Amino acid sequence: MKNEEKDLLPRTKMFARRIIRLYCALAKNDTVAQVLGKQALRAGTSVGANYREANRARSKAKFISKLGDCLKEADETLYWLELMIDENVVPSRRLTPLAEEANELVAIFITILKRARGHE
Q: pLDDT digits over 11-35, tens only?
């Protein structure tokens, strides 16, 4: 495993922790905030779990499959964060750094997937 890929283990875990803190800070009596927050919570915490699984894959095909799951969940998290911004659930200045991290993770997973598939 390359160093930048090892760095993703703590990075994806920190991303999940930030998503958890976001969800915990959402208004409990705001239905939209809770629905969007739960979706972001589910997707955002799945990124690191799937990446961890990818690193324990027994085959290249399984690695690529789990990495595809990482990409899907990171992109989905970005979608829910964008909706939270669009619906003014959380001020954009507070969510923008988290959305930027989700976007960076998407780009990283795309790059790793291309390399793994031999499409550099």
A: 999 999 999 999 999 999 999 999 9
Q: At what angle do helices 92-117 and 3-25 cross, to 10 degrees?
A: 150
pTM over 0.85: yes
CB 50 within 8 A of CB 69: yes
**In total, how many domains does the chain have?**
1
Mean pLDDT of 72-88: 97
The amino acid present at 8, given as its one-letter code, is: L
| Exposed / middle / buried, residue 2 (Cβ in 10 Å: 0-12, 13-18, 19+) | exposed
Residue-number span of the structural domain to which 106 is assigned = 3-117
Residue 22 sits in a domain whose CATH number is 1.20.1440.60
Distance CA 88, CA 9 (A): 31
Residues constituting the chain: 120
Amino acid symbol at 16: A
Q: What is the rounded distance in angstroms from the CA atom of residue 14 to the CA atom of residue 48?
A: 9
Cα angle value 49/50/55 (rounded, 5°): 100
Give CA–CA dist 118/52, Å, rounded.
Answer: 22
